[in-house]
Amino acid sequence: AAYGLTHAQSRVLALLAEGCSNREIAESLGLAEGTVKVHVSRIFRALKVSSRSQVLLVLSRDGRVTR
Length: 67
What we know:
Number of strands: 0
Largest sheet: none
């Protein structure tokens, strides 16, 4: 998967890129909010970033954001 993420982390990343909150991601994927937080922190580590806005910059740079 992209950036060495698991399938679950990739699904979280897609919703993160759409601007969804952890709560919205949790509800959408049927996960606990705590699980989403763990996924988000691992996504940050994989992309070597420390914020949601930096995630968007990396995705944009890599041509992975479609809007």
